[in-house]
Amino acid sequence: MATIPPVLEELGKTRDLSDSEQGGPASKRQRTDDGILVLSEVDLRSSNPSKPSKNHKRLTKRQKKKAEKFAEPCSSEDVLWKDLVSVLGQDEVDKAIEGETDMKSPFEIHQEIEVEVKILGSNGDGIAVPVDSKQPWAVVVPLTLPGERVRTRIYRQARLHSVGDLLEVITPNTTLRDSSRIQCKYFGSCGGCQYQMLSYETQLEFKREVVVKAFRNYCNILSEQMPTIQPTAPSPLQYGYRTKLTPHFEAPSRKIQKGPRPPTDVQPEWLQIGFNRIGTRKVLDIEECPIASPVINAQIGPTREHVIKTSHTYTKGVSLLFRDSLDTAVDANPDSVDRLSDAFNKHICITNHKETCREQVGDFIFEYNAGSFFQNNNSVLPPLTNYVRDAIFPPSATEPSTLTHLVDTYCGAGLFAIVLSPFFQKVAGIELSQDSIRFATHNAKLNSISEEKISFRSGDAAEIFAVVREFPKDQTAVLIDPPRKGCDEVFIKQLLEFGPKTVVYVSCNVHTQARDIAQIMERGKEEGVTKYRLESVKGFDLFPQTAHVESVAVLRRVD
Ligand SMILES: C[S@@+](CC[C@H](N)C(=O)[O-])C[C@H]1O[C@@H](n2cnc3c(N)ncnc32)[C@H](O)[C@@H]1O
């Protein structure tokens, strides 16, 4: 029998039972645009309404109705559902739904069972079936790998599956699992990382599989139109890469708030500063995060001390901010500073949302508001932006490119627009956040790009097509990099009406990306609508050790 890290053992023992009641509040995982896992509430109907377990809580009618509904397309529940169907088989799933057994779990909450893991789901958890399966039912067990036999304790019930804590890996997959690779003492308890026990090559292969499945499930185009998904591009840094961290803590209860002032040098018991424990909304106290950069880790201790000292002052939960930045006290003007000097390359940690951060990407400098969006893994930005450049101007092309104009939609602080600007005569960017646009314009100046060449405006992405009407569509590339929810129909309609020669779609959610690309290609079947060919799809690993994958798809107009 394989031993499991003590953190897993602790997780198995200490899950708060109130969190795992049948029909009680359960949590659904969601990922923010920068890949951070957050948990929000979803209500599940009782798995066996006729025989409630002793932990059963009554659901309101509204809660029941919500739980009975199928998941929103492309949501993390829907992505999981597709994985469940692939494990259980469509016929069995259909039969269970028809026979109304799809919500009737064969297991009790807190029951311990043995399961065999069939696949690693796209959300990063193992998807298993019970060893003595009598009805089609799956069990989702985080931190497990295909081929493993594990013991799990059920803590949540949902449609055709239960979710359990990993108690023991009975038969490990020794080809894949190696616990000596784990570099974080919180791995197994913290909800942030899923893959530290895997080799980096295996992580990249699993991420490619996620992209393959996303296009299979959400991009319903003919198989001959679907290019082979390329290998996932690695991150140069696999630990110490995160340039942003947002640990949080809950406020003390009213009683504690009103009680006597606590000593300021001892961490009160209620105060846990960190990330959500796996599968819960309970905070795990953390003092370090090995995937975050060194300056962030150096700042965690002093910030924790400050929070502990002032803990009596908090009446609301707080999300802390740690941003790795070049030292903004040094003038960024290339005439006054050597950008290769130690002074310019000194890193500091910014904790105030309103302060300015600075990063270098290739030869370009970017400044942005610490509270606004910027990609969270600086090490991967040169390969990512180079890949997008080569996708627009393929180095293997035999003819010189005719592309002279770039439209950067959802442009943030101007990352792609500015890095790619040397290759275009004119560049226009659009972004909803006025703050980011202010910085995009500032960044153009910081990098000596003229106002005649580059312009940024704030607004909804679809509005850009009215602005760039004078851009010659045969010479224009459009870059799309939307938030996790993807593009809306208005945007896609306007994109197709504009009809640029090349579209590069960068996405932090490959499922909505696949859905949007299907829509772009489907619309092209209509009379008079621009047609596109999906040329390539490639994952990029912006978040090593986690299940997250970024994806870049390239579409060329069919003339
Ligand atoms: C994934 S980020 C990409 C930012 C930028 N391309 C980068 O790499 O730094 C998505 C950006 O879209 C912006 N955004 C969200 N909804 C938008 C909309 N409807 N129109 C334009 N921008 C939007 C967000 O503020 C965010 O900056």
Textual characterization of the structure:
The active site is at 508, 508 (nucleophile). With 559 residues, the protein is an alpha/beta fold. It folds into 3 domains: 6-177, OB fold (Dihydrolipoamide Acetyltransferase, E2P) (Beta Barrel); 209-233 and 378-558, Vaccinia Virus protein VP39 (Rossmann fold, 3-Layer(aba) Sandwich), CATH 3.40.50.150; 247-320, no CATH class. Helix content is 25%, strand content 24%. It has helices spanning 6-14, 61-68, 76-88, 90-98, 200-218, 254-258, 294-309, 381-392, 415-420, 434-446, 464-467, 489-498, 510-523, and strands at 25-31, 37-43, 112-120, 126-130, 138-141, 149-158, 161-171, 230-233, 244-245, 248-249, 274-276, 283-285, 318-319, 322-326, 347-350, 356-361, 364-369, 405-409, 426-431, 454-458, 476-480, 502-507, 531-540, 550-558. The strands form 7 sheets. The protein has an 8-stranded mixed sheet, sandwiched between helices. Strands 3-4-5-7-6 form a 5-stranded mixed beta barrel. The protein has a 3-stranded antiparallel sheet with strand order 9-14-15, covered by helices on one side. Residues 1-14 and 17-57 have low confidence and may be disordered. The site of S-adenosylmethionine has 21 residues, from helix 9 and strand 19.
